[in-house]
Structures are given as C-alpha cells and as structure tokens.
Amino acid sequence: MSTVKINLKHARDAIAGKNYDDALKWTQKVLDADSGNYMGLVFSGLAYQNLGQVDKGEEYFKKAIAASPELPLAREGLISFYEKLKKWHELILSLEEMLHIHLKTPDEKKALSTTEKLIELYTNEGQFDKAIERIQTLLPGAPLYELLGDKPSQIDTLKTLASVQERADSEFYEREVRLRRGRLGGGTQEQVQNAVRNELYSKSELGSTYESILELDPEGNKDLQLKLLQFYSNKMEAITNNKKPAIREKALALASNMIQDNCISPLPYELLLKFTDAGSPSDYDVNLQEQYITKFPNTGLSKMIQAQLHFANGEARDDLVELLEEGFKLEPNLAYGYLVVCWMDHATRDYEAGLEHATAGRDILQKLATATAFPFSKMRQSFELCMASCQLKISIKLAGGALALYEGIIKADETNVEAHQGIGLVKLMELKYAEATQSFERVLKLEPDNISAKSELGWICYLQEDYVQAEERLREVVEMSEEPRALDLYRLGRIYYDMGGEYRENSDYSHAQLIAAAKLDPHCAGAFTYLGHYYREVVQDEARAEKCYQHAFTLDPREGDAGRFLSDYLLNGGSLEGAVDVYQRVVAADGKANWALNRLGFAELMRGNNLEAMGSFQKLLRNDIKDALAWEGVAEAYQHEGRYMAALKAFTRNRELVPESTVAEYHLARVHQRLGMYPEAIEHYRSTLALAERNGESKHIPSLMGMSESYLEQGKEFFLSGYYGRSAESYGHALEYIFQLLQMDSNTMSAWKLVGDTCLAYRAVPRYLRLCPMETLSAIIDMLPSDTNTLLHFPTGLDDHELEFLKIASASDFVDATTEITSQALDAIYAAAGLAYKRANILNGNEGHLAAHYWYDIALTYYYRYENALRKNRMAEMAGHANQWLGVTMRYLKASLQFEEENPIVWNALGVAALSTNPKISQHAFIKAIEYDSKNAAPWSNLGFLYILNSELDLALKAFTTAQTLDPSFAQAWTGQACVASLWGSNESTALFAHACESSTASILEANYGFAVNTFTDMLASFHKPNSGINASSNSKRGPSFSATTLLVTPSFALSKYLEQRPRDVAAWNLLGLIRERFLQQEGAAECFLTAIRILNEEESEISSGDGHRRRKMMLHHNLGRALLSMQDYAGAVEAYEISLELEGPEATPNTIRTCKHLGAGLALYYAGELERSLAMFEVALAETEQVEGMEKSRDDVVVLLSQVLWALGGEEQRAVAKDELFRCIGQSPTHLPAIFGLGAMGLVQDDETLATAALKEILKFSRQELAEMDPEMRSDRIISQYYSLLNESKLSIAALSKSVHQSPAEASLWRRLSEHLSTTIANTGAAAYSVAQSSAKAGLDLLLQRESLQAVDLMHGYAQVAGTMLLADEERQQKVAGWKNVKKEKLEEESRQSLSKVQEALMMAQRAAMAAPWERKAWQVVGVATQALLQRVDVQ
User: Fold this and answer.
1) pLDDT over 70 at 1034, yes or no
2) Looking at the chain, which terminus has fewer C-beta neighbours within 10 angstroms, N or C?
3) How far apart are CA 360 and CA 338, in angstroms?
4) What are phi and psi of 17, to 5 degrees?
5) Secondary structure element (H or E) that encloses residue 502, with its range
6) How far is CA 237 from the centre of its chain?
C-alpha cells in the first residue's frame, strides 16, 4: 500500500474518531505529496468544518470540486456545510450543480430528492418563478419526469404548483401595490389596486393549473371550481378584448355546471345573471332568480331581485324602498339594480328620479361592457328608452336629448317599436305633426294593431284642430279595444268638449267619456280637470268644478289648468295661503311649471317673503331665461332684500326683453338711486319720462318724484365732496321737477315734503343762491291754498314779506353772496320750506307719526330763521326777530313730541334749540334723546357743547369721548374735543380740528374755522420762536417759508369752504387774507380785506358801531395797507394806512402796531415819490421806537429806511445826514449789516471808491461763518461783487458771488443770482461764455424742483433764467457760426437744426415760467423774446 493511501486511511480514522487536528496532519501529508488529491482535500474540508474554521473548510471543499467536478462527495460535504450555516443562496447553487450531476449519472432518486429540496428552498426564499420552474420538471413531458421510474402523483404536483402560484400572485400584488402607492403621481389606492390586479391576471398562469387539476379530478375539487370561476371573472377584465369572449364562455359554462351541482356560493349565479342581456327586468330567468334569492337572500343583488318580483306582483313602490336601499348599499354599482329601479320610477311617474337612475345605470353598464367586451345591447337600449321617455315626461326642453336617444336605438335596431313611438312623441311635442304622423305610421307597419300609435294619430288630428277626424280615430280606438284605455276615453271626451255645441253640452258626449275615463282610471287627472271645466262652464256649478279641480290637482299636481283654476278659486275666497300651497305643490311636482313659479313668486312678494320669492323667480328663469315678468319679479325681490347690484342686473335684463316698458326703466332708476348712483338714476328717470311720453302716457309721477329725490341726494353728496356750486345746481333741478309733479297733482304729500327738504338744503350753500330757481320756487308757493297757515293755527300773512321777496329776486342779486340780500333770500327760502311742510301736514291730516315728523320739520325752518337773524353781521331789523323765531321753534318741537314722545331726534333738536337760552331744558332734552337712542353719538356731542358753553370742560370732554366711542367717524365729537383742548391751551387742539375737518370732508363749519385759526396761530408762534420751527429753515430767508405755505394749504381750503357757507363772516375773511399773504397772493389777500371792510361798512346796528367795530375796521385797513404795499399800489396803501391811523384816534399812544403803520405808510409814500411825507412818517416811527418797549432792535432798521429817504431827496445836506445816521447806527450796532450795506450802496451809486471800500472793509471784518449767520441771503457777497464791478474787476466780481454758491450750494436763489450776474458781465466784458451762465441757471432750477414745496414766483424765475441764458448762449453760438468760412453746407444745416432745437427748448422753459406764475410780467416777456427768436430761426431755415 502506498504512503498516500496509508495517510488517507489514518485521516479517515481520525475523522471517525473526531480527532480533527490529527486528521489535518494526515491530510496535510497527503496534500504535500499530491496537492490535487481529491480525498485529501475532502478530508481537510471535513476536519476544518468540524473544527469551526468555516472559511478553511469551504476553501478545501471548493478545491476538491475543482480537482474532480464529476465526483459528488465534495459537493455533498459543501451542501451539508451550507445547510448547517443556513447559507441558502450558496446551498441553492450547490444543489443546482448537484442536480445536474444526478441527471447525468443518471441517479433518479437523488435527482428527485434534490429537485424537491430545491422546490422547498425556492418557495421559502420567495423565488416563486424558480420554484414553479422546478415543479414543472415533475410534470409529464419534462426530462426529469420521463427519467423517473416511480413517477410522482400528477395531481399532487399540480396542487403544489397551484399553491406556489397562488403565493406568487399574492405576494406580487401586495408588493406592487405598496411600491406604487409610494411613487409620486401613483394614483389613488383604488386606481393602483386595479392596475396591479389587471397586470397580475393578464399574465398569471394559475387558471391553466386549475383547469389541469379539474381535468384530472372534476368531481373532487368543488372548491377549486369556485377559485377558477373567480379567476376567470378577474382575468376577463385584465386581458385584451379579443381574448375576453373565450374566457367569458369558459366562465359561464363553469358557472352553469356549478349551479347544476347545487353550488353553495353566490358567484356562479351572479355571473350568469350579470351576463344576461335583458331588455327589461321581467326578461330575466325567473327560476334562476328564485334559486338565487332562496339561497342567498341577504346579498345586494338578491334584494334587488326581491324588490322587482314584489313590484311585478303589484306591491307599491313605497313599500319596497327599504329593500332597494339595502340592495344599493350592498351593491352600489349593480347595473341590474338601476334597471329595476329606473323602470319602477317610470311606472310610478317619478320621471326625474327615473332619468337619474337610468342615466347612472347606463354609465355603469358602459363601464361593464368595456371591461368585459360584452355589448349588453338589449339592456343598454332599455336604459336609453327609459331615459328618453322620462325626458319627454319632464319637459319639452329635454326633447332634443330624447330624440337623439331614440334615433340611436333605431340606428342599432330599425324594428324597435318603442323607439319609433318615442320619435313620434318628440315630433308631436315639437308641433311637427307631419313627422310625428310618419313615425306612428311606421309603428303601425311594424305592429298594425298598435293601439297607442292609433291613439296618437287621432290626438295629432285633435291638436291640428281637425276634430272630426280626431273623433273618428279615437272612437275607432275605443271601439277596437277589448278593454278601452282611460287615456283614450279622456282624449275622446276632451275632443267632444272642444268641438263645442252639443258635444260639449250634451252629457252623452264629452261628459260621458270623461266620467267613463274617471271611473276606469280614478287616477286620470286630466279627466277630472275637464270635468271641472264642464261643471264651471256648462253646468256653472262652481262648487262641483272646484271639487273636480281639487281632485285633479290632488291626483297630479302637474295638471296646469287644474292648479290655475283651483288657485283662482282660493284667491277669490281670500285664501292666499291656500293658493300659495297650490303653487308650491305644483312646483314640487313639476319644476318646469312656469305659471306656478311666476304666481308663487309674486305671492311670496305680497307676503313679504323676499328670499322665497327670489327662489321661485330664479327657478322660473332657469326654465325660461327670456321671461320678462320673472326678471321683474326677481329684481323686486332683490331690491326688497337690499341686494341692489343684483336687482340692477335683473332690471337691466327685464328692460332688454321689454325695451318700451316704463316699469323696467323706472325700477332701474330706482335701484340706481338706492345705490347712490345718482347720475345714472337721473338718466334712467329721464328715459322713463321719455318712454311714457312716447307711449302716450301722462307724466310718470313716480319718475318725477324719483328725479327730484335723486337731484336732492346728489346735491347733498356734492356738498359732502366739497362741490358746493354743483350742490346748489342740483337742488335747483330738484325744485324744477317737483314743480312739474305738483302741476299734475298738487295734493301729493311727499312732494310738499320734498319741497321743504330741498329748500332747507340751501342753508349749507348760501354763496350759490344765484343757482336757486326763485321763479320756480315762487310758482310752487303760489300753488298753496291761502288758508295753509290758518288751518294749523298760524297767523294769517305770517310769511308774506319773505314770500314777496321770492317774486322780485333775480339770480343777478346773488352774484355777491357777502351782501345782506343773501340773508334775506335765506329767510324767504326758509319761509317757503315751512309752508311746504305745513301743506304736507295738512294733507296728512295732522295725525300719527308723520305729524310728529312734519312738526319737527316746521320747527326746523323757524330755528334756521332764528340762526339767520342772530348772525353777528345781520341788520338790527332782522336780528330783532331772533327771539320770536326761537320761541316758535321750541313750541313746535314740543308739538312734535306730543305725537311721538320717544323720538330721540326731536329731543336732540329741542336740546340744540335751548342750548344758549335755557341750559336746564337743553340738558334734559339731550338726556332724553340719549335715553331713547343710547347708540346715537349726536346728543352726546351736543351735550358736550352745552357743557362748554357753561364752562364745564371736564364734563364736556367726557361727553365728547362717549360720542367718539359710539361713532368714531362722528366729526362733531372731534370738533368738540378740539374746542375743549383749545380752551385748555393744549397743543392737541390743532390736530383734533384737522382730524374733524378731514373726516367731515370740510363740511363742519366749526371744524373748518377752528382748524384754520389754530393752524395760523401755531404757525405764528413757531415763526417767532428763535432757531426753531419755520424761522429755522434756510428756506425762510426770503418771505414766507415753504414749510409755512405747505402748513397752511389745507387750512386755507377749509376756511374757503367755511366762507362758502358763511359768506358774511368778517373774521373769517380777515383770516383768509392773512393766510393768502403767507402764500404771497397779495391781490387775493387785498380782496379778502376789502370784502371784510365792505361787510363792516354795511353794518348799521348799534352793537356793531361801538368800539369793537372801530378796532376791527382799524385792523382791517392796516392789513389792507400792507397787502396793497406788496402789490405796489402805493396810493391805495397810503390811504389804507392813513385810515387805520385815523381810526386809532387822537389819544392813541405809541405801540408796536402803530409804529409798523408809520413804517408802512413811510414806505408807500417813499415808493409813491412823496419823499417829504415819507420822511415825516419815518421820523415819527423812529421816535416811537424809542418810546415803545421791545422795539430797540427795530430802531436800526428804521434808521436805514430813514437814510434811504434822505438819500432819495437828493440834496447834499440830506445825503450827508443820511451818511451820518448810518455811521452813527454802525457805531452803536457794529453788526447791523443793513446799515453797512447802505453805506456801501451809497459809495457804489456815487462812484465813491473810498466810501465803498470803507463799507467793504467793515464787511470783511466778519468771518464767513459770522456772515452766514447774520446774512443768510448772502447779500454781503452781492455788495462785494458790485464793488469789484465798479472797479472793472469782473473776475473778482464773479468770484464774490461764486463764494456764496460754495458757501450754500443747495440754495437755488444763489445759483440764479450768479447766473444773472454772469449774463450781465458777459454782455459787458465777454469774460466768459454764456454756457457758464446757463449751467448755473439749470443748477438753480434743479435745486428748486427737488424741493417738496416752493413758491410759484421762485419757480417762474428759475425757468425764466434758464430760458434767457439758453437764448443768449444760442445767440453767441450763431455769431461764431456766422464768422465761419469755407464750411460745408451740411455742417451749416446741422448747426441750424441744433439752433432751432435749442430755441424750441428755451421757448418751452419760458412757457413753463408763465404757467408757474401767469401773473408775473417777466415770464411773458421771456416767452415773447423766445417766440421771436424761434420765428427768426424758422425764417432762416
């Protein structure tokens, strides 16, 4: 024996003895001798495996296999090794290799066991495809199966295969559903499940396996039959259409066999019933249905079948509701169920439900047909026939859809009698009698004895009013019928009735047929309807007729005639509720019964049920969009409900349908009026009046009233918007239309009320009384009965004086609203208003709550007359009536309260009337007003004003705060709080007045005036504060500051609005003049002061001619003089100042204002050339500065002015005195620059270089910073510049002004001054180009335009300077061009074009200057120069 064999034997023995280390020693010796020794490698693998060295063991087994692949021992060891370690993947690979070896051997038993082991592993690992592949090798035809001597059971193998396929399909389904649901856009759960199921069954081979098992053992696998049937059912929906019929046939055959074998599952029964193509529920296999419902009574299909069978046996539809509901709950998508229920609905005349169910059933059936590739043609036709029939029964509007359905059925089946009959009915409804006749004749060709077709042909003759032919045909139908139909008897009776004469009146004809129809079919509503007609018209038995109509209506609420006449009987009996019930039942039964919807809508309007009326009219419009009456009704409902925009649209549509209807146009106007769209309302009212005239109607009184109301409300809206002139104009139009209305009916109470309201509206716009049609108003008053005052116990002729004024007044009398005649006109208008209210109250009978309102209105007219009489600028004669009017006011307010004690408005008015005369009554009245209306802010606000008048400021503030809490937008409360703040000296008063003014759009007088006064006072206070406020701004160097003018813009507007309502308020005119002065609108200011003076001069009462009157007049003349001086009207200014000084009286003592007057007069006289008088005025002023405390600093200014006058006198002595005064002034006040400037100017004027140099040296003693503080306008630099100009030092002259610009580069006036100086210097010396001047001018203009606010004059100067320098620069350029020689023509033409463009730009700048300040002459001069230059350039070209 060789050494290798001995070592192998020792190794085997060691392994057997479990001495694995020894075994390894022996195997190592073997392998050392022969490294590829198979057994040595195998034993090494076993030893390592048992020692737990897994990797080593696997390595040696693999080496052994590699050495001898055909030997199984190493593989078996490796398989055992993998199995112990549960390395299933490696184990499967090894078993597959082992199986291959066994098949080669061949070793059938080992091959079979290996295959079975692989099947188990593949199944456990979820590798079902591999498992199925291995199972199939054990079936006949496979090499392994043929190799086996002892063949495995084929049926067992197939069952194993089926089991694995089931698991494979199940896991595939669950895995794919889970994965696809997690994908973006994967679809819903149901969609994903259906997609995966279809994919699964389209490729699954499970059915073939089931079929193979059943072939081998058809009797022993009942459960498998059910599985196969379910598989067929699912696969049918998954596969393509061309394969579906084969699967369906298999499924149906299998289901039939299963039913024969008495299957206990419902599936085969349901499958056979599902694929039964029946034209009606009765066409199904009744035996099959009975078997099914017996075995499976609780399924959805079973309950549907039960309901159908019960209904076929005569049970009521209502008794089957529960069964049907349970069935649909279990099977909501069952086509059979919808087929059953839609025909049930049709049979019970619930056509809308029938249509809904038939449509749903057809849709479900279509999906089923698509899924199964089974046409279901009969069932689909049945659904469509039901749909079409229901559509015809519901409404003629659906006839088109029904016709399409019938035609589709005939296209598929030309012999379908029901479809031909349906087409005939459609044509009959469309009144196409010829086509309907053709359709019914086709029916008779298909079924010659078709009673329905013959009946319809006779009915067509009736509808064509061929009563004889109709009677013959219907009588033939009745005679040939074994059992006459109630419908045919009813039709025959109706034909007899409409034939009239004997056929109607003889009871053997119409009456007999109708009675027979009613007896034969007690539910034939039409028969009872015509019986009602018979008893109403022939027998004239209203009671029996009503009963017949009632019975017909009870049977069928859709019987239109029955419902109409029954509702008429109910309305005649006073039962509106009963009639409404009839309409509601008709609408519930037939939503297309337009007559009922129309009547119901208007009935609900009468009952005040606007929402219900709205619903009725909306339903009617859905039925007939062109029903004009319905549009009118729904619009009225919208209007009553406050939905005006919807009403507007509805009335617009109504007018489109009935364009000549005055009603539609009137309602349109009314809605526009309610919406506050007054221009549109007025236009529609005007159109209504025009339509009425075209239609031959009299003047449309409601439109005249609406037109008047609209103009009145529009006027009030204009007033709130600040358009007072438009407001007054609208009031005038209102009076004119009221006059037209009263001419037609002078007893219209609301018209007289409107006259009074319109007249009182003029109270707010007295400045525009010229727009009041006095003649029209006088004509209206002339229409009043002469006893108007007497009937209400007023004195006769009470208002004759005022009314006489209306007759003599003309529009030209009111052009100037500041005259006394305006107040007289207001008295007359108030008197007219009072008479109008009295007439309205007389027409009212002086009764009820309206009387309370009219007495309140009457009292209001007298209170306004009291206010008018109390005006501080009224004549004494008129003011004397004040107490009389106030007493009348109080008396009639109390009269109003006697009619309506709890009226808070009247209590509030009583409080206002007693405000200044009786605080206790006033307070009591306000408290009562608050008690009756605690949410109203007005009485709280008025109570606050009462407390102010009585100096109870804390209580006043509380009252105003309460009013603001109740209504934060109530401007009067804010005005009151502002008054309290002003009385307390609070800084908040101005802001509060501003808020009140803004929130009221400048319509509250007190707020307007308070805002203007407080703002102006604050501005003055800020102006006089050092280094703060307005005076601190660099923009305030010259004249009023920009911030000052901006601050006063809104108050100026508010004050203007105040004066439009109070045109004779002297203080307001004075304040407006002061404000306009700040705007540098001197002419406007002078006009305001003159107006105030004229009003004062008109005053003749004793109160106004006292000391206060004199002081006010003195102040106004002072202000006027100042304004005229600024306007350069020196003579007028002198006169004004002298009058003001004269009014002070001889005993006047020096004071600041008096000194200012002397200064002003001195300046005016100086500029007027009266130097001697001017000198005298300045001397007085200079003397007074020493006497008046606080004017010491002003003395230096007076000295400068005095020196100017002395210098202007021209004498050597006077000029010497002027110089001495200035030197003395400089000696006393070295920093007083005006005195230094005066000396410098004297030196420059006289070419006195010594004097000018001395002044210059005085200026140069100050630093630039000191000069900037003392001389913000840099006048010192201008003096220096002029000095150098005197020395012909143009560059130094320009440099001096340039320093100013460098010092304050943001000051536009300095740039303009530099530009002006450059323009002058260049013209004289040619020291620089005009383009430099132009650049400086543009820089100054740019700075101006950057300001938030600026003076118009400054802007004008800026534009004018730019325009002037542009013209000069262009002229300079043209002079250079003129000197060119040998220049091409094109170059000259280009220069000419550029020159034209520059001049055009200069003209545009000049025009902007004129637009900025059109009153300034300089602007127009520049425009003229630029225009002339442009014309020259155009001529050259």
Assistant:
1) no
2) N
3) 7
4) -85, 5
5) helix 502-505
6) 52
Which two structure tokens, joined as six digits, stand for 599?
A: 């009547």
Three-state secondary structure of 352-420: HHHHHHHHHHHHHHHHHHHHHCCCCHHHHHHHHHHHHHHHHHHCHHHHHHHHHHHHHHHHHCCCCHHHH
Q: What is the dihedral of CA 1279, 1285, 1291, 1292, to 10 degrees?
A: -40
DSSP state of 507: I
In the structure, what pLDDT confidence band is assigned to residue 54 with cuts at 50, 70 and 90?
A: low
pLDDT at 1362: 82
Is residue 1230 helix, strand or coil?
A: coil
CA 1421 to each of CA 553, 703, 1313, 1435: distance values in angstroms, whole numbers, following the listed order: 96, 58, 19, 21
Largest distance between two CA atoms of the chain: 172
Amino acid 1107 reads: D
Q: Look up the pTM and report it.
A: 0.59
Q: What is the per-residue pLDDT across 1277-1318, written as a single tens digit (0 to 9) for each?
A: 666 666 666 666 666 667 766 766 666 676 666 676 667 766
Give which of 192, 197, 194 is closest to 178, Cα–Cα.
192
Whether pLDDT at 1130 is above 90: no
Question: Can you read off the two tokens belonging to residue 233?
Answer: 């059912």
The identity of residue 1054, as a single letter, is A
The rounded distance, in Å, linking the Cα atoms of 809 and 282 is 98
Q: Which residues contact 1419 (CB under 8 A, 6 or more apart)?
A: 1356, 1359, 1360, 1406, 1409, 1410, 1412, 1413
The 3 state secondary structure assigned to 58-110 is HHHHHHHHHHCCCCCHHHHHHHHHHHHHCCHHHHHHHHHHHHHHHHHCCCHHH
Cα distances from 522 to residues 490, 548, 1165, in angstroms, run 12, 12, 120
What's residue 1046's pLDDT? 66
The set of residues, in sequence order, having a beta carbon less than 8 Å from that of 101 and lying 6+ positions away, is 70, 72, 75
Rounded distance between C-alpha atoms, residue 365 and residue 990, angstroms: 82
Tokens of 762: 């003029």
Q: What is the pLDDT of residue 1035?
A: 39
CA 297 to chain centre: 60
CB count in 10 Å sphere of residue 1196: 20
Region of 536 please: left (phi>0), alpha (psi -120 to 50) or beta.
alpha
User: In the numeric block, which tokens belong to residue 1333?
Assistant: 């001047």
C-alpha 717/C-alpha 738 separation (Å) is 19
Let me know: does 38 contact 74? Beta carbons within 8 Å: yes
Helices (H), 1188-1289: 1192-1209, 1212-1228, 1233-1245, 1249-1260, 1264-1270, 1275-1286
CB 707 within 8 A of CB 741: no
The mean pLDDT value of the chain amounts to: 80
Cis peptide before 1230 (omega within 30 of 0): no
Integer Cα distance of 1083 and 1076 in angstroms: 9
DSSP state at residue 784:
S
**620-672, pLDDT tens digit by residue?**
888 888 888 888 888 888 888 888 888 888 888 888 888 888 888 888 888 88
pLDDT of 824 strictly over 80: yes
What is the predicted pLDDT for the residue at 734?
93
Give the span between the Cα atoms of 104 and 70, in whole angstroms: 9
Residues 900/852, Cβ–Cβ less than 8 Å? yes
Sorted by sequence, the CB contacts under 8 Å of residue 613 that are 6+ apart come out as: 600, 601, 602, 603, 604, 605, 633, 634, 636, 637
